[in-house]
Amino acid sequence: METWIEVLVFGLQRGAIFGLVGLGLALVYKATRILNFAQGELGTVPAFTALLVMTGFETVGDKAVDRGMLIPAIVTAIAVGAVLGILLYVVVIRPLGKVSPVTSLVATAGVALLLTTIELNVFEARARRFPRPVNGGFDLPGTDIIVDWHTIVILAVLAGVALALAAFFRSAPGVALLATAEDPFAAELQGVPVERMRAMAWGAAGALGALAGILGAGVFESLTPGLVTSTFMIPAFTGVVLGGITSMVGAVVGGFALGIVSQAAIQIVTTYELDVPGPPQLAVLVVLLAVLLVRPQGLLGKSA
Fold first, then answer.
1. Is the pTM of this model over 0.70?
2. Of all helices (H) and strands (E), which one includes residue 68?
3. Which of 58, 69, 144, 206 could pair with 63 in a Cys bridge, judged by C-beta atoms 3.0 to 4.6 Å apart?
4. Is position 304 within any domain?
């Protein structure tokens, strides 16, 4: 029983990161009907920016981080993520105009590859130490399981972001964004600045990606080029599809579900000593295939 409680705890930790990445994916899709495969790098690049701030912009070696600069580093990373998201929309997506969704998807994938290549050239293909906002942990009552405070921070950040987005979509700008997604021409006739609203959605997605990158690097206490894309992107995308790609709530629910599923897959393979390579990745792909076959619109989405 205790083993499965541990699976639940670590599954929720991973699932919260999936949820943050998934919220960025869902927000962009809701606003522009584009799947942004560069969302992972909108998390990794800001995380490296935060690392630079904490190491005095040292890119060579493995200089110790200055924890006193942690808050300024996080604020800078979020700002960089937002700017990257806006630039991605203005420089890549908007010039493409009304091309097919596949073309836009490929364009964002190309941006992800470009940013990963830049990271590899600047920071080399190796892990660098990355601090958690809060160290230590506490004993889960009635068990021998130690829960990291970092897990609580991740869950708290996700809860705060979800509440902020819920409030936003009940405000005038949020309604304007929904109108922009539903019928851009009609929204523009009503005086809604369509391009500005779309850029805002991409900027918000970049800020969410930055939070995911910082907290995701904190999970491993290390940062490598392409971390968010390689570790969290596919499960987050699967979680969004599972929850319903047009549903913000579904992105969070799907993220948690995939976090628990992937952690359970690791536990099952370990417990029964099965010779299965990459159990969490395999479990995620099985879930994705099942959702696409059985309920392609997802659990909470109206359309996919």
1. yes
2. none
3. 58
4. no
> Among residues 228, 273, 245, which one has the least CA distance to residue 181?
245
Q: Which domain holds residue 130?
A: 2-135+142-294
CATH of the domain at 183: 1.10.3470
In-domain check, residue 299: no
Radius of gyration over alpha carbons of the chain, in Å? 19
Examine residue 303 and state whether it is found in any structural domain, yes or no. no
Q: How far is CA 168 from CA 11, 162, 216, in A?
A: 28, 10, 25
Which pLDDT score is estimated for 1?
Answer: 67
Counted domains in the chain: 1
For residue range 235-289, list pLDDT tens digits in order. Answer: 999 999 999 888 889 999 999 999 999 999 999 998 888 888 889 999 999 998 9
At residue 160, the 3 state secondary structure works out as helix
pLDDT over 80 (residue 292):
yes
The Cα–Cα gap between 65 and 81 comes to 21
In a domain, 300, yes or no: no
